[in-house]
Amino acid sequence: QVQLVESGGGLVQAGGSLRLSCAASGRTFSSYTMGWFRQAPGKEREFVAAINWSSGNTFYADSVKGRFTISRDNAKNTVYLQMNSLKPEDTAVYYCAAGYSYYSSTYYYTQTPYNYWGQGTQVTVSS
Q1: Residues 48, 30: Cα–Cα separation, whole Å
Q2: Measured distance CA(8)–CA(82) in Å, rounded
Q3: Rounded to whole angstroms, how far apart are CA atoms 93 and 123?
Q4: 17-52: per-residue pLDDT in tens?
Q5: Angle CA(90)–CA(110)–CA(74) in degrees, nearest 5?
């Protein structure tokens, strides 16, 4: 049974940093692409970042490029999202997702190829 468990959310002031973790279990994820999405109140869920577990290639939404970094730890089966220079508009519930690395990379900017989702962790950035 695949499980993705996010942690690390919280309340932070604008300009601050947080590191989110996604602990993955239930299968080997070396053939998967791991993504982070977020959903703010009243808005649709949107792509934040993704990493191909095998190659280490990373992808970012324009809104977070240069501020957020996605990485993975093979030994811990965990994916991280380091978030720096946080802004109030980054406030959202952040979700970890996993999808088989079968498609072209651009497809992983959408929710469609992701089969597994975590429950989410709240990030609140105060101004």
Answers
A1: 21
A2: 10
A3: 6
A4: 999 999 999 988 999 999 999 999 999 999 999 999
A5: 80
* DSSP string covering 23-66: EEESS--TTEEEEEEEE-TTS--EEEEEEETTT--EEE-TTTTT
Q: Are strands 121-126 and 10-13 parallel, antiparallel or unpaired?
A: parallel
Question: Whole-angstrom Cα distance, residue 57 to residue 5?
Answer: 22
Q: What is the pLDDT of residues 80-121, one digit of tens each?
A: 999 999 999 999 999 999 999 988 888 999 999 999 999 999
Contact between 73 and 82 (Cβ < 8 Å): no
- Which phi and psi (to 5°) does residue 10 adopt? 165, -165
| Helix count and strand count (H, E) for the chain | 0, 11
User: What region, left, alpha or beta, does residue 90 occupy, with left being phi > 0 and alpha being psi -120 to 50 degrees?
Assistant: alpha
| pLDDT computed for residue 105 by the predictor | 86
